[in-house]
Amino acid sequence: MDQVRVIEVKENILADNDKEAQLLRDRLKSKKTFLMNLMSSPGSGKTTTLLRTIEALKDKIKIGIMEADIDSDVDAITMANAGVKSIQLHTGGMCHLDAAMTEQGLNELGFDGLDLVVLENVGNLICPAEFDTGAAKNVMILSVPEGHDKPLKYPLMFSKVDALIINKIDVLPYFDFDMEKVREYVGKINKNVKIFPISAKSGEGVKEWCDWLLKEVQEHNK
């Protein structure tokens, strides 16, 4: 009896997505809109970090937020109340967004005239790392309570990001978290990543992060 044929579809799916992502990236560049893909585990402080970022930059650039989640519209309402254009993207149970889903969200948001759009991706460290969304930059938040070993456990995610925010540094005294080990582990995976230790709660380090982001947006949108 002939063996059952096994077809590897993942590579083709990812290749097709990469093509769509590049087309979207080119479109956004032509419209002078900077798309940032923000990824993290649940509870890392994405929403609070975004609120701090909006507070620092909303008078300098026009910002839109796309909140992706399996369900709920709580985060999108929070962003709208902060004074920025926002929509909620429900993924129908999927644990990531791809380029086509991102483009659909952008079209619904209406990104003409927006300098920066932030895609707050679904909260996990596995699926979102595999799919190019068409973003100009990928950013990840790692919070102190999660531990300094996460780059060893989720190397793909850390290899894909342009910037790493280490959030909740205000609780460093209460956790066994080694900042130098994080830098060492991440450096072995991704030598070009920018690292920003911050406390979104207290505001410590937020200026350095926002200054970097503003510069990236301005350079991209020239």
Residue fraction in strands = 15-25%
Q: Let me know the number of strands.
A: 7
Low-pLDDT runs: none
- Class by helix and strand content? alpha/beta
Strand order, sheet with most strands: 3-2-4-1-5-6-7
Radius of gyration: 18 Å
SSE arrangement, N to C: HEHEHEHEHEHHEHEH
Approximate shape: globular
Helix percentage range: 40-55%
Tally the helices: what do you get?
9
Architecture overview:
The chain is of the alpha/beta class and about 220 residues long. Helices cover about 40% and strands about 20% of the residues. It is built from nine helices and seven strands. Strands 3-2-4-1-5-6-7 form a seven-stranded parallel sheet, sandwiched between helices. α2 crosses α9. The longest helix is centred in the first third of the chain and has 22 residues, at about 10-30.
List the helices and strands and how they pair.
Elements: H1 10-31, E1 34-40, H2 46-57, E2 63-69, H3 74-81, E3 85-90, H4 99-109, E4 116-120, H5 127-130, E5 137-143, H6 150-153, H7 155-160, E6 163-167, H8 179-189, E7 194-197, H9 206-220
Helix pairs in contact: 2-9
Features:
alpha/beta, 9 helices, 7-stranded parallel β-sheet, 18% strand, 222 residues
